[in-house]
Design brief:
The chain is built from eleven helices and six strands. The strands form two sheets. It has a four-stranded mixed sheet, with helices on both faces. Strands 1-2 form a two-stranded parallel ribbon. By secondary structure, it is of the alpha/beta class. Bound molecules: fe (ii) ion. Fe (ii) ion binds next to helix 5.
Amino acid sequence: MATGSLTLSVPYLVEQKYAEYTAEQHAVWSELVRRRMPQLEQHACREYLDGYEVIGLQNDRLPNLYSISNRLRPRTGWSTTPVSGFMPGDAFFEMLADRQFPTTTWLRDRNSLEYTPEPDIFHDVFGHVPMHAHAVFADFLQHYGKVCAGVKDEEIREKLGRLFWYTVEFGVIRQNGKLKVYGSGVISSHGECTNVINGGCAIHDFDLDEVLSTTVKVDEMHKLLFAIESFDQIYEAMRAAEIKLLGSAQ
Ligand SMILES: [Fe+2]
């Protein structure tokens, strides 16, 4: 396992024991993809759908993280690195800053297809990783990790956490006059995505001040999300957030 320049996150790095996944687990993956794809083909942003092809996800088999990294690395320099589970902020940000996405290797079981309290490989890979094939998004994510790694003030970290939440986790974008989803939480959850599509959630134009002051609630369906117009906008928002919260941009 390559650890590169990682230090804080080393204790969390594991190997993905791909051969140990059971036929039932591959079948659950396949079922999860079957439940999400029809809606995403219509409502996911085109960068997500392109990325899905680029990283070579197969609908009927769990993803091999090593193969994904081999496809992503030449394109955006990102890799999809297996970790043991939840990581403290410092270790998580260190990995993002090194263009390594911490990815869990366990998969939910058949009884919790719609929701897991902690991210699993479906949320992490199906939800997040296709966007890492997009150059601007990929740069944004690395920059986010680099900036957050240097922040110790809890209040500032919480505000930056909101920027992450309302983009990487629950972001939506307007494309050709239509609302499309790109955040992993909306991509991977049928309930959240349906809520957005059916107008169960207010959509405001992305405004940095509003995003930074909108509290994250993890235990209920979203009532407000923020639509960007292009991925350049989140990169620019990150620079503006640095100036606003830290006094200067890196
Ligand atoms: Fe996530």
